Amino acid sequence: MGRGVLYLLIGVLAVRVAFHPGGGKQADRSGALAEIAGKPFGSLLLWALGAAVAGMVLWRLSEAAFGAAGTDGRKPRKRLISGGRAVFYGFVAYSVLSFAAGSGNGGSSDRTSKDVTARALDLPGGRWLVGAAGIGVVAAGCWVFGRAVLRKFDEHLRTASMSSRTRHAVDALGVLGGMARGVLFAAAGAFAVVAAVRYEPGKAKGMDDTLRAFTQTPAGPWLLVAVAVGLMAFGAFSFASARYRRT
């Protein structure tokens, strides 16, 4: 549920960026958290969101320790993936709860990407390290895109409990949302590779800058709008996934 809220808000912010690129909040996690904080009972909502994401951490940790649902859920590869997801959501939970406590800014993805890239480039073999990481993110984006097209997410859902109309809707949201995430990850990874090749940390981009870069393509703001709609679709899919997830 928490993941769904974040992606829905990031998608909405990305649409704003498409038509007002010079203003508005960042289209990333920090922008989404700031958007929530500005609403009535925003502080309470942030704490609830942080608790929800922390719940995802515990869920992924339990999958890493005991295996996920499905016939191959206990395989080492599946457990390793669950462990990686637990680490990722751990960072997200920390940033959300830090923001709620007033001790953080939600972790601006652009500033973090540039800082981490700069430190990595200064290490021995740093260019190779950053380049390899970028290629890894590109590969992950392609993997996410491919799984969405092949509708692999159905393996984790109780599709038999859905009506025909609901299943078609969930499939559409899952495909569209997964494709958008895949494109976003692959683009961010490509920018990291460029930063490594040119030895320029500033070429690395977080989510906000990557989304804004879509407006510089021949398609103009409409490519960003398409990706933003996809991110909102993934947010909606996350709610459906929480409802019909296999246990």
TrEMBL record:
Using the record's annotation, list all stretches that form the DUF1206 domain.
2-66, 84-151, 177-245
Keyword set, alphabetical order: Membrane, Transmembrane, Transmembrane helix
Pfam families listed in its UniProt record = DUF1206 (PF06724)
Q: Which residues cross the membrane?
A: 40-59, 80-101, 128-150, 170-199, 219-240
Top-rank taxon of the source lineage equals: Bacteria
InterPro entries (UniProt xref) = DUF1206
Record's protein name: Membrane protein
Q: Which organism is it from?
A: Streptomyces sulfonofaciens
